[in-house]
Amino acid sequence: MKRLPVALLATLTLAACSHPAAETPGATKPAPAASVASAPVKHPAAPAFAPPADSDIPAGPLGDEIRLGRAIFTDTPAQAHDYVGNGLSCSNCHLDAGRLANSAPLWGAWGMYPQYRKKNGHVNSFGERLQGCFRYSMNGKAPPLDSDIIVALESYAWWMSKGAPNGVKLAGAGYPKQDFKPPQPPDYARGAVVYAKDCALCHGADGQGQQVNDRNVFPPLWGPQSFNWGAGMHELDNAAAFIKANMPLSRGGTLSDQDAWDVAMYMDAHERPQDPRYAGDVAATRAKYHDTPMSLYGTTVNGHLLGSEASK
Amino acid sequence: MLRTLGLLALLIPLGAGATDAASIAQQGNGKGAAPCMACHGPDGGGNSATGFPRLAGLDAAYLKQQLDDFASGARANPVMQPNASALSEDERAALAKYYSALPLPARLATPPAAKPDADGERLAARGDWSRDLPACVQCHAPGGVGVGANFPPLAGQPAAYIASQLRAWQQGTRHNDPLQLMQHVAKQLTPQEIDAVAGWFAAQPLPARGNGP
User: Which of B153, B136, B159 is nearest to B209 (CA)?
Assistant: First the structure.
């Protein structure tokens, strides 16, 4: 366990070298708008984009489908009940109903698909990317590609991206994880201190969130009602970047880089639902799907083998 | 931590605490604390004309914290500070528990409708993320019914009270909020927005057992 953080830092640097493109300039602030036609430079600033207002959703059947997509996105357990295995909604991780820069907004994703994904080793349509979120982040199952749920979500993402350049990485797309490195290797004990000070107020001392009338007001960060071991948020770089940019809610950008990494590690070193691709035992599953220093799955933290007591 | 305080309050023997608190609420404590009901109403439901807040049904740990903060000055208010300072620690705990256990006054279940205001509803239900402003209901729960010990209900509070607290945070007279969450929220709001959002919450119906699990 003591050795893990050092190994982690080393591989981090390696990983950074194999992805030289630095698309997102700052950790929290979107880049200023850049002219798309400007002469090619070595690291061109990504162009900015502002999505249309909700009040611009058109009337008529297409507008209805877009509105349905928004409803599914913001109240997923109620609107897509059969495909959701926890209490989360898409908008818990993609804030402002999928509109907010630096929280993997839909307008930053739409024009980047079809896309080859290492995760499943083939070219994914946008619809298949959405299916992945249901399977892992929502700990549920994938709605069929031609189902009303996927079509409504696609309609919403398409509408929100109207006018955005196609195939261009926009400022504020994804979580701002490029060049975002921990000054020191992340540490569980320091993360616990950050958690108690900056997170427990809302997500609860036990990480289970807070509910009113059986609905999450503050979503759980681990345990049986949270995202599973296959979800992107269980990887430290995704979690640290999301947290740095967006948490504590309304105070994004106020944590130090170190605090964000430490608390991301603390969060991701707790048990959660099993990876649905579970390959018979934890070691085999780690070797097959989690062979990266960004995943703590199958490693031992505080004397506990993570993944060995995952629910389901 | 706040939760622990809540548990402690529950452990105080019913008899003694309850009696003292009820009599202070009705008559004051004879040492400078005025009868609470004179302002907060015989049913603890507050007074919408004067903007005195409802206390009935609020979380005990939240109420205790506010009384402590008035006493220490972390929450400045010329009316409540002398009252809270004249109460002993035990009396503050007993009064917090007494008011949290009062039933929700029926008169608050269906408040008079506010004049419809798109700005108020938008801020309450969607926020304005271009200013880092979440929807109020993301912290105060849908309908503003409140969440646990840290996020008090806004439904069932007088509009004048909600607006006065937002201004108090803007001016810095109230600065006892955890993680400066409300200072940050309030500083983003214009005077018109304060009135609009206060009016929206004051007009929300208050379901029986709205606050707490």
Answer: B153
DSSP string, A173-225: -S-S-TT---SS---HHHHHHHHHHHTHHHH-TTS--EEETTEEEE--SSSTT
The range of the structural domain enclosing residue A73 comes to: 56-160
Question: HSE-up of B48 (CA within 13 Å, CB side)?
Answer: 15
Q: Could you read off the pLDDT of A6-36 as tens digits, one per residue?
A: 344 434 433 333 333 333 333 333 333 333 3
pLDDT in tens, B18-57: 458 999 999 999 999 999 999 999 999 999 999 999 999 9
- Structure tokens that stand for B164 in this block: 């006065």
Residue B16 vs residues A209, B102, B155: alpha-carbon distances, Å: 35, 17, 32
Of B127, B141, B184, the CB nearest to A217: B141
Non-local (6+) Cβ contacts of B107 within 8 A are B43, B45
Domains observed in chain B: 2-104 (1.10.760.10), 112-202 (1.10.760.10)
In the numeric block, which tokens belong to residue A6?
Answer: 């050092």
Q: State ipTM.
A: 0.88
Residues of A in contact with B206 (CB under 8 A): none
Strand partners, A212: A215
Q: Which residues of B touch A215 (CB under 8 A)?
A: 142
